């Protein structure tokens, strides 16, 4: 599959994301924030970083980048979209995902090998995992606290839209230990930890993140 | 020229770590008795034309679309004669 990775001004992890896409067996396509079309990609990754310097709110200005009009439209058609860290913030600001991400409750930037439980596996990004599978994936953020009102949190839990949950301690104050969520359809997934940094033994805590990039194929064969 | 001020504050139920950090610094500086600090944002918008209800509605749309995230923040819009900078200047600060 052709997987587009969007680079915004201030994106950090776009190159790692493209590398992870390739290791996952796909063709990575670089997309630019000023692009108005998606170059025929089959799926889209919004990578981590500090797009537009996190000015105003993290992800708030990126939401109005020209490429996002096409991303929102594609998401509506069911095209798989994965937002990692800053990409997750962009998806929330775009209202493609519920809730918002605020500054960590302990006020410090956090960089840890984080234990997670994968809870929703019927999405195009997580089908390689077993439901309830525990993994270790790098987490690095300053504004990773997932918040939403109680009714939204209850709905996320009740409808099984929580994709991943923090284990062994909550690293950033996210309500109900939520590390990642999806939309109803499951094609749009936001995740605060960085699976693209956990795809090779040499440079991370292991390869537990690779599943996010191999799942796409398995969905296609399903 | 019409001038509007948009005040944005985190919703009461949303944790405000920045406000907490500021609050935590006050006793160290000798300021006691402050029981809470919430940190928000103030935007000053200069807009072409006279202040009208239509223009106010437009600024409210701007506030609700970009300046504030209604999921976590409340905002309030009002017209203002002078900016904070002008008030400071007049006061000789």
Automatic annotation (TrEMBL), chain A:
GO terms for molecular function: ATP binding; glutaminase activity; phosphoribosylformylglycinamidine synthase activity; transferase activity. CDD domains: GATase1_FGAR_AT (cd01740). Pathway: Purine metabolism; IMP biosynthesis via de novo pathway; 5-amino-1-(5-phospho-D-ribosyl)imidazole from N(2)-formyl-N(1)-(5-phospho-D-ribosyl)glycinamide: step 1/2. The keyword Ligase applies. The keyword Hydrolase applies. Keywords: ATP-binding, Cytoplasm, Glutamine amidotransferase, Hydrolase, Ligase, Nucleotide-binding, Purine biosynthesis, Transferase. The active site is at 85 (nucleophile), 194, 196. It holds the Pfam family GATase_5. Its main location: cytoplasm. One of its GO terms (cellular component) is cytoplasm. It is found in: Cytoplasm. GO terms for biological process: 'de novo' IMP biosynthetic process. It catalyses: N(2)-formyl-N(1)-(5-phospho-beta-D-ribosyl)glycinamide + L-glutamine + ATP + H2O = 2-formamido-N(1)-(5-O-phospho-beta-D-ribosyl)acetamidine + L-glutamate + ADP + phosphate + H(+); L-glutamine + H2O = L-glutamate + NH4(+). Its EC number is 6.3.5.3, 3.5.1.2. Part of the FGAM synthase complex composed of 1 PurL, 1 PurQ and 2 PurS subunits. Part of the phosphoribosylformylglycinamidine synthase complex involved in the purines biosynthetic pathway. Catalyzes the ATP-dependent conversion of formylglycinamide ribonucleotide (FGAR) and glutamine to yield formylglycinamidine ribonucleotide (FGAM) and glutamate. The FGAM synthase complex is composed of three subunits. PurQ produces an ammonia molecule by converting glutamine to glutamate. PurL transfers the ammonia molecule to FGAR to form FGAM in an ATP-dependent manner. This is Phosphoribosylformylglycinamidine synthase subunit PurQ.
């Amino acid at each position: 599959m052709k997987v587009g990775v969007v680079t915004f001004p201030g994106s950090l992890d776009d190159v790692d994301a493209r590398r992870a896409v390739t290791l996952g067996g796909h063709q990575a396509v670089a997309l630019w924030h000023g692009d108005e079309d998606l170059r025929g990609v089959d799926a889209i990754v919004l990578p981590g970083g500090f797009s537009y310097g996190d000015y105003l709110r993290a992800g708030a200005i990126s939401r109005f980048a020209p490429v996002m009009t096409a991303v929102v439209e594609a998401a509506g058609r069911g095209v798989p979209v994965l937002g990692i860290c800053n990409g997750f913030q962009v998806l929330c600001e775009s209202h493609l995902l519920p809730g918002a991400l605020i500054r960590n409750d302990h006020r410090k930037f956090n960089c840890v090998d984080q234990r997670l439980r994968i809870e929703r596996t019927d999405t195009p990004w997580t089908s390689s995992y077993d439901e309830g599978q525990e993994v270790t994936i790098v987490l690095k953020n300053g504004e990773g606290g997932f918040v939403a009102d109680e009714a939204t949190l209850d709905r996320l839990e009740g409808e099984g839209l929580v994709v991943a949950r923090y284990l062994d301690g909550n690293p950033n104050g996210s309500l109900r230990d939520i590390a990642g969520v999806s939309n109803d359809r499951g094609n749009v997934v936001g995740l605060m930890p960085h699976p693209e940094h956990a795809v090779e033994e040499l440079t991370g805590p292991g390869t537990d993140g690779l599943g996010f990039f191999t799942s796409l194929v398995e969905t296609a064969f399903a | 020229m019409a001038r509007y001020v948009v005040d944005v504050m985190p919703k009461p139920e949303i944790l405000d770590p920045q406000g907490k950090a500021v609050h935590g610094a006050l006793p160290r500086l000798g300021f006691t008795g402050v029981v809470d600090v919430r940190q928000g944002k103030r935007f000053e918008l200069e807009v072409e034309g006279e202040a009208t209800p239509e223009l106010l509605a437009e600024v409210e749309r701007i506030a609700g679309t970009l300046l504030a995230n209604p999921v976590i923040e409340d905002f309030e819009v009002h017209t203002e004669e002078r900016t904070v900078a002008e008030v400071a200047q007049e006061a000789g600060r």
